[in-house]
Design goal:
The structure holds 2 protein chains of 2 kinds. By secondary structure, chain A is an all-alpha fold. Chain A has one domain (67-311): MetI-like (MetI-like fold). Chain A is 69% helix and 1% strand. Chain A has a two-stranded antiparallel ribbon with strand order 1-2. Chain B is an all-alpha fold. Chain B has a single domain, classed as MetI-like fold (Orthogonal Bundle), CATH 1.10.3720. Chain B has helices at 14-42, 46-49, 62-69, 77-107, 114-125, 129-142, 149-172, 177-185, 190-201, 203-219, 222-227, 235-242, 250-279. Chain B is globular and about 70 Å long. Chain B starts with 13 loop residues before the first helix and ends in a 6-residue tail after the last helix. Classes of the chains: A mainly alpha, B mainly alpha. The interface between A and B is large, with 122 and 117 residues.
């Protein structure tokens, strides 16, 4: 465990001669922060405000048309848009399923890794690799080497076991994408849960053992309680990333039979050929609202962990 | 890190540890299998790759040669690789140049309301890229930046900057304050403090932060494909466009995939011990 020194607020720093004449103390503190802060404000808040404005207009880019203010028409339209409804449903499926399954798998694997055994470093290295791969490569190799109807490894196993091959990607597009996401995100969850397990205060566990607690009892009563904020963090961060999913859909199905999520739908309706920037912006604002809801909880969890760190 | 690993001390539970260790190996190998198989397929001929799965074959570099030499797609391997290197290195350097002073102002001599600033940074990470893409596309078109490297350098800086600020803040906060205060009393300027104490002490953390930025920038696909589908484009675009999916292509695809992933896999393996801080937004370590 590393000792963390809590940054102290409002510390008096002895003034140095000759340098305070130009800038006040508080501005000298702020100065190093400003470039990064201004950069982020410019690059995130400006496009966001523009998106909100676009979403209130009727605007077709190709062929170029005038941008007309239409108020909330786009949002009204969206309530009756059957394709948008199904895109939301796909987004929910492709967020909830991978997050939950990868959290469960990641926790189980973290428990396995949280002890010494021969080759632990190698196993850990193998386990994190899926998360490092380029997401489009993940989509392509799963589609073509794992799921493929003729040469796919999974179908080869199914046939050896006497089953009939399944055309995973064309028959179950959303499930196929979800499986690749589970594979990609399990290492992420594992790393978070492993950090959680390794921050367990060992004296409490030892005390419970001395008192004769069974290993499973310790795990259920102590470990899971301790891991709870880590699980929350994993779920929230995973959801934030997965709600924006685009890469695997683009290379595996191209949004084909019922696997278009909201970000992919935004793309289809705009740069991907629809060129309806006004309407598409209203879809993306819906993603923003969903993200804000998740982020509110995420920030609360982060804030809790940060306070814990400061108190440590 | 490994010192407090689990309840290993109890002697009679040694067999439990063996079973758990064996299980961990099995799970590790299963999870790694798709990567292993991709590497294996990349050394096969198309005929070998497109047969029923086989473990033994005569390895060949033919498909690597084919994918790197042919310009089957819109851009060649060397163009895409150069673009990726330039974009990733430039954006990572800008991220560090902006994030190191910012992290200093949040951890070492914190500004007032440093928590709020920190949370502003992270909240930008929660803004979905899809919400920004249309205005960004319009702006890039107006400024003549579509299909340029510059637009991706700027955007990847924006993607990684909040992460880097959080990650570096947590590393800087661990530097003993006495050292920094001593330097301050000696009259060291911000630059002096950074170069003499903070940068050397936080070097491993800074390296890990840089590597994580490299991974995210290298792998990025959404902005690249929307803003930069042709000339200035990167390795992920090259993988998806270079290999024709007509006829047999699995070995070529595997070779291209290996080439596209080698830099990030190496970066991740090197940074793995410290990576968790960046992934968990610096909240845990």
């Amino acid at each position: 465990m590393t000792t963390t020194v809590r940054p102290r607020i409002g510390r008096v720093i002895p003034p140095k001669a000759g340098r305070d004449s130009l800038l006040s103390e508080s501005w000298r503190r702020r100065l190093p922060l400003l470039p990064a802060l201004l950069f982020m404000i410019l690059l995130t808040q400006v496009p966001f405000v523009m998106s909100v404005y676009y979403s209130l207009t009727d605007w077709k880019i190709v062929p170029p048309g005038p941008r007309e203010y239409v108020g909330l028409d786009n949002y009204q339209h969206l309530l009756h848009d059957h394709f948008f409804g199904s895109a939301i449903w796909v987004s929910i499926q492709l967020t909830v399923f991978p997050v939950i399954v990868s959290l469960v798998l990641g926790t189980a694997i973290a428990v396995l890794l949280d002890r010494k055994f021969f080759g632990r470093g190698v196993v850990r290295t193998m386990l994190i690799t899926p998360f490092l791969l380029t997401p489009v490569v993940i989509g392509l190799i799963w589609k073509n080497q794992m799921f493929h109807g003729l040469y796919g490894v999974i179908n080869w196993v199914i046939e050896k076991l006497g089953g009939t091959p399944v055309e995973f990607v064309s028959e179950h597009p959303t499930l196929s994408i979800a499986i690749t996401l589970v594979w990609q995100w399990t290492p992420f969850m594992m790393l978070i849960m492993l950090a959680g397990l390794q921050s367990m205060p060992q004296d409490v566990v030892e005390a419970a053992k001395v008192d004769g607690a069974a290993p499973f009892g310790i795990f259920r009563q102590l470990t899971l309680g301790h891991l709870r904020p880590y699980m929350e963090l994993g779920v929230l961060l995973g959801s934030i990333y997965l709600i924006q999913l685009y890469d695997q859909i683009a290379v595996m199905t191209g949004g084909g039979p019922g696997s278009t999520n909201v970000p992919y739908y935004v793309y289809q309706r705009s740069i991907g050929g629809g060129w309806e920037f006004g309407q598409a912006s209203s879809y993306s604002i819906v993603v923003v609202i969903a993200s804000i809801v998740i982020a509110t909880f995420a920030l609360r969890v982060l804030s809790g962990l940060l306070k814990g760190e400061a108190a440590a | 890190m490994s010192a407090e690993a689990g309840p290993t001390a109890v002697g009679e539970r040694r067999w439990v540890n063996r079973v758990f260790g064996g299980l961990a190996w099995i799970v590790g190998l299963v999870m790694f299998f798709p990567v292993f198989w991709m590497v294996l397929n990349s050394f096969k001929t198309e005929a070998d790759a497109n047969a029923s799965p086989k473990l033994f074959f005569t390895p060949t570099l033919d498909e690597y040669r084919t994918v790197t030499e042919s310009a089957g797609g819109l851009l060649s391997f060397s163009e895409a690789f150069t673009n990726s290197i330039v974009i990733v290195v430039a954006s990572t350097l800008i991220v560090l140049a902006l994030a190191i002073p910012a992290a200093y102002a949040l951890a070492v001599r914190p500004v007032l309301k440093w928590r709020d600033v920190l949370f502003f940074f992270i909240s930008t990470k929660f803004l979905p890229v899809v919400a920004a893409i249309l205005p960004v596309w319009i702006l890039a078109r107006e400024l003549g930046l579509l299909n340029s490297r510059l637009v991706l350098i700027i955007l990847y800086t924006a993607i990684n900057l909040p992460l880097a600020v959080w990650m570096l803040r947590s590393f800087f906060a661990e530097i003993p304050r006495e050292l920094i205060e001593a330097a301050e009393i000696d009259g060291a300027s911000l630059r002096g403090q950074l170069t003499s104490i903070i940068l050397p002490m936080a070097a491993p953390g800074i390296a890990a932060t840089a590597l994580l930025c490299v991974i995210f920038a290298w792998n990025e696909f959404f902005y690249a494909v929307q803003l930069n589908p042709v000339e200035g484009s990167t390795m992920p675009i090259w993988v998806t466009t270079n290999v024709s999916t007509r006829g047999d292509f699995l070995a070529k695809l595997s070779a291209a995939s290996v080439l596209a992933c080698i830099p990030v896999v190496l970066a991740g393996w090197i940074a793995q011990k410290r990576m968790i801080r960046g992934l968990a937004m610096g909240a845990i370590k």
